[in-house]
Design goal:
The chain has about 200 residues and is mainly alpha-helical. The protein has a domain at about 25-65 and about 115-190. About 60% of the residues lie in helices and about 5% in strands. It is built from eight helices and two strands. The protein has helices at about 1-15, 25-30, 35-45, 50-60, 95-105, 115-130, 140-150, 160-190; strands at about 70-75, 80. It has a two-stranded antiparallel ribbon with strand order 1-2. α7 packs across α8 (about 160-190). The protein is globular, with a radius of gyration of 17 Å.
Length: about 200
């Protein structure tokens, strides 16, 4: 029994470790080919470009499956509550994650699984397109809506921090798009790999 638990632990660790070069889409998918399949499926299902999916994850968690916001501190030393309930690759908060699970009829989705995280981003950007009329090709405004939420989106113009983050996401999405153009044929040739 102990051996089985150790094997499962090592498999989960190996599958969930952070890629070596998170700034390069080709490098990410060379290490984690199944991630490419999941991102591609999300692009087909929701129409959300793979480059935008990766750019959001890069900004939110830098591909750390267990990422959480830092804790606030009492008296500048004692760890206290976290700033939000966000967790995982997509840094989705509990309430929005529950909404996603209900609306997509996916009750077993978890925020620490890449497959579910990219599907969540696809769902979220699709709702943003419907609610705020922001194209999925507009990574700058899509990210602002992702970061601020649909209700707070209209107030972003005075928020220099969020504008700066969105510019970084926009630039990273452009880089990912160019990189993936260069390696897309190779990634698609590997479609029969099952592990």
């Amino acid at each position: 029994m102990k051996q089985l638990i150790l094997i499962v632990f090592f498999l989960i660790s190996a599958c969930s470790s952070i890629p070596k070069n998170t700034a390069d889409g080709c490098s990410i998918f060379s290490e984690r080919y199944l991630w490419y399949k999941h991102a591609k499926k999300t692009e087909r299902k929701w129409g959300t470009p793979i480059s935008l999916q990766l750019a959001i994850i890069k900004m939110e968690s830098d591909f750390d499956w267990l990422a959480k916001p830092p804790r606030n501190k009492l008296f500048k030393v004692i760890p206290y509550k976290r700033k939000s309930s966000s967790l995982g690759y997509s840094q989705a908060v509990k309430g929005t994650w529950e909404q996603y699970k209900n609306e997509t009829n996916n009750p077993i989705a978890t925020r620490v699984r890449f497959k579910d995280s990219v599907d969540f981003i696809g769902w979220y950007t699709t709702k943003t397109e419907k609610i705020l009329k922001i194209s999925k090709k507009d990574s700058f405004r899509q990210y602002i809506a992702y970061h601020e939420g649909w209700g707070n989106y209209k107030n972003y113009k005075n928020n220099t921090k969020v504008i700066s983050l969105a510019k970084r996401v926009e630039l990273q999405a452009k880089k990912y798009r160019k990189q993936l153009t260069d390696c897309k044929k190779r990634l698609n040739r590997n479609k029969y790999i099952i592990f």
